[in-house]
Records
---
Amino acid sequence: MIGFAVDKIHDYFASQVYLSENDSIKLKYILKVILNELSKLIILFFIFFMVNNGINYIYCLTSLIPLRTYIGGIHYKTYTGCLIFSGVFIYVSIYLSSHLSINYFTAMIQFIFSLLIIVALAPIISKSRPIYNRRKKMYFKLISILIVLFHFTAYFSTKNNPYFTQSIWVITLQSIQLIIAKGGLLYENSKNILNKSN
């Protein structure tokens, strides 16, 4: 269904303006990413809306999308796998925010932990995205740090604000996700080295 929509939109643009082969490939990739992500967001919204968590879902997305764009994380090869993982991630974020209260001390620990992980590991780029040079990666890291600083500063300045409380858990879980993703990359690299040596 998404592939059909991508082809139709691509063909429309191709009929309106000249596209080189490289431009055509880029356009198809961008359209596929946008439609894939948009469809997942809509599906998940309806699921969380049905269980009376539509607002919390929006809170999660508002903090997650800008952060994940720059730091990356775990990536699934299939649409279904990505959809399920995203749903579980957001559910856990909402659950923790609803059932575990945060005070100044625990928020400070989460802030330091998240900041250290992002400084050390971010960004972890999906294989489907372009290869970025060191300068671009440092730019991504800097933006990620600024996003984290903004959310934690806002949390400490506005006590019990539901959005910023939710964002603390999103950032913390996303930082843990970076550790897992990095571990997966190290495992893949070591496996490839062993295969080459054999």
---
Amino acid sequence: MASRSASRDSAVSDSLVTQRDEIVFRMEEITRTLRQAFERRIQQTGLTRTQWRILAYLLRSEGVSQSDLARLLDLERATIGQAIDTLEEQGLVERRPCPADRRVWRVHLREAAYDLVPLLRAEADRLHELTWVGLTESDIAFLELMLDRVAANLSTIPG
């Protein structure tokens, strides 16, 4: 009787939790683990991963508005506001009013951010080295291609 129940339970679980589900679960685990590992590595800087993402984005697009940062980083406006407040208190960024629209605040890096970013970059690079052990550049490029396809597919889903 127990083996019949175990067999049925296995068949039910195999049909309800598919290989594709397992892949999504694994991707979520990897994302969480990477986020936590990076947070631990940069803890001594007093920054969070979200604040690092803001600084990294500002390095590429200096002077972006706070609202645009929230949208581009897929974060709530309140979350961005709090993170920028902290970065401003630490002397890493400053808000400046937009000359064309005084209601809009643009975020700019301060000199201290340029001094800190190489340390953050080095920590990210060390974590990446550990993350990609055993994978060739070709493996990584293929993974990127597959993830790009998945992202493109997801972008077409309505709602």
---
Amino acid sequence: MQFGARNDGRTDSTQALSTAWSQACSHDGGGVVLVPDGRFLISSLVFKGPCNGSIGLRINGELLAPIDPNFAIAQIWLSIYEVDNLFVDGYGSLNGRGSLAWSIKKFNRPISNSRVKIRDARYENIRGTSATQAAVNFECSQVLPCEGIVLQDINLSFNGRGQPTSICHNVKGSAFGKQLPSSCL
């Protein structure tokens, strides 16, 4: 809360987190942004690089998306752009408040092809509940396939009928440790 963030879950802490990221990213050799215990309301935020070294986001608290249903329709909540050597860890959580978006009946936003290449990404100690049966979903581009993906100790349940599943299209990688759902890598 060195940058003015409030851990009450109601006060917008977006600028504080953005400032912390900018300072850590620009520090020679990189840095770590710590989200301490508490609940932090975060509006749309882009974690932008390139950074001057490896950078980490250690989430020990809870990051909360806005409650506004218009935000759920129109906005991207958290985005990472042009960042290499990123690690995300901690015992906290991201709460995108998806139930607000799931309840919206008239959602008319076309999905376009991406020009994003994901490579050398590690997903480790992921646990939680999925709103969709496909709890792990890598639908990567044929033009820019995902490469070097590592899944380690994944434990996701599905909050509907049936078992959670994995979908992998145009992705190369490996899986280690517990894999629930079974890995498609």
---
Amino acid sequence: MVSHFLLLSGFLSCGMNQPVETPVVLEIKKGKLQRLIPWQAYPADLPAPDTTYADCYALTPLADAHVHLALDGVDFAAARARWNDETGMHHMWQTNLESMARAGVLAARDGGDRQGWAHRLAAQMDSLFYIHTTHPAYCREGGYGTAFAHPLGRNAMPPWGELTTQIRANGSRHLKLMLSGIISFTEYGQVGPCQFTEKELSALVAQANGAGLPLMVHASGAEASALAASCGVHSLEHGYFLTESTLTQLAQKGIYWVPTLAPVAAQAPAYPVAARSLDRQMQMVELARQLGVPVVAGSDAGATGVRHGFGLLKELELLGQCGYSPLELLTKVLRHTWQSLNPDLDPVWPLPALNLYRQPPWQKLSALSADLITILWLGDDEIARTTLAKSHLKFSPASSD
């Protein structure tokens, strides 16, 4: 199998602590990174490297840990109406993936939809994207979440063992639970009651762990967030109005926190309460950084005002306003993000792909949106590059070595 040698101006992986900021050659074989060779010390007995991208800075692909691919981020009602239109759903799915690619986002963890569209369509797609889905998610009958989840009976202990077995069998990669309601944009601090008890959630955590299904839990409010942390869930989604003591638990237990700043930021101009809620959430993210909480980038893409792909760039920008440097975001935060999808992935080389930029985004985060040139897909036998056009995503051979 032939190795490919790529000369680049610089390179950073989320599995690294520091970037390579001098010209470097990447040796890639069978889609995997073999080694980094400083250009100044490049051995004469190796093949001449491909210099097509010698002026580019490479970054391993971005990942979004909280999306809804059955929604478009533009019009919630119109997107839901497409759930009864298979042709419309296929078109929206492709549009959402194209939007992700134009932002350099090649991986995502989907939070589910009631009809399982994301789960079905992900199973039908090719391997260019790494999408984790689940179906169904669960909520309580009468509680928040019926647009995304299957409602369970009000009073009895849910049959978690049976449900986790079914979910595992249908190819789900994780399990999603609605523990609270959503935050109000008109009444500060209001999120609705907890939908499950400590006994019920603890039983689900045990079953999910036994089935190898990471449990992502939608929870906001001090009570629900604390309950999720105390029961040891895999990831706390949202977590608005959580407390410092809950952050301490998250840090001690290594529970991922996905603070989803982007959807509330999108509503903040129209709703003063949303702006106030966002300000508090960002203060807690800053504290989480200081406490060592494994904060994860999840944009809630598909929510109104949050487009797929570019919503993650906004989420990273907002996390940067909480004290994270561009380098921290592209290493520590993105490493946590990839690990929240799959802890077995190699953080140095999570996918056989590279994002190429005109400027190094680890120096200036705005390069993620302003300076993305192309994405290289590194297959077993060839390298393909993307054409990042507005209306389509094309793939063409980048070299014939």
